[in-house]
Amino acid sequence: MPKPGPVKIAIVNGDFESEKPGLFGNPEGWISVQHAGAVSYSFKLDTAEKHGGERSVRIDNVGPEPYGSIYQKIAALPFQRKTVRMSAWLRTRGVTGNALAPGAVLTLQALRSGALVAFNHSPDQAQTGDTEWTRHVIELSIPAEADGLELGAMLPGPGQVWLDDVELFVLPK
C-alpha cells in the first residue's frame, strides 16, 4: 500500500485573488506588520506582477524600520507534534537584506499564547537583488504546546518583494 502524501491545509486567499478587504486594509485573510516606528513598509495587491491568477501582494520598503512582514494566522492544535510545509512564490527588486535577515524570506512561526515557541525564517533561501518568480518551500515541526501558526513572508530592509500562490500542507508521519 502506498504511503499517504501531504494533506493540504486550508488557508484564506493564498493566491491573493480575493478583492474583499481584510483587516486594516490588508488583503483578505492576511495581516501586515512592521517593526516599531514611522510607517516604513506598504502592503498592496499588485495586478502587474503576479505568478498565477490576476494578482499578488507586494511589500515595499518606504522608510527606515528594519522589516515588514505579511502573514496569516491559523490554529495549530490540529498540527501539534506534526510537521507542516509551506510553499510559495517570491519575486524581488532591489532587496539587500540587513542584520535581521539576509534577504526576502518565507516565515513559519509556531506560537503559544502569542509567544514564539518555534520558527523557520528560511535564511538559506533568502532572495536578494532583482529576481524572477522563484518557488520556495520551508518546513516546521509544530511543538506540542503550540496553539497558533503564522505563515507569511518578510522583507528586511530596502527593496520590494512579491508573494503569490501560498500553500500549506501537513506531512505524514
Structure overview:
- This protein is mainly beta and 173 residues long.
- It has a single domain, classed as Jelly Rolls, CATH 2.60.120.
- The protein contains no helices and 11 strands.
- The chain has strands at residues 7-9, 31-34, 41-46, 56-61, 67-75, 83-95, 105-112, 115-120, 129-141, 148-156, 160-170.
- Strands 1, 3, 4, 6, 9 and 11 form a 6-stranded antiparallel sheet that branches.
- The mean pLDDT is 96.
How many domains is the backbone divided into? Answer: 1
Q: How many individual helices?
A: 0
β-strand amount: over 45%
Regions with pLDDT < 50 over 5+ consecutive residues?
none
CATH superfamily descriptor: Galactose-binding domain-like
Label the structural class. Answer: mainly beta
- Indicate the CATH architecture: Sandwich
Q: Care to count the β-strands?
A: 11
Give the CATH topology: Jelly Rolls
SSE topology string: EEEEEEEEEEE
How many strands, what sense, and barrel or not for the largest sheet? 6 strands, antiparallel
Question: Helix proportion of residues, in percent?
Answer: under 10%
List the helices and strands and how they pair.
Blueprint lengths: L6 E3 L21 E4 L6 E6 L9 E6 L5 E9 L7 E13 L9 E8 L2 E6 L8 E13 L6 E9 L3 E11 L3
Antiparallel strand pairs: 1-11, 2-5, 3-4, 4-11, 5-10, 6-9, 6-11, 7-8, 7-10
Question: What labels describe this entry?
Answer:
single chain, 173 residues, mainly beta, Jelly Rolls, 5-stranded antiparallel β-sheet, globular
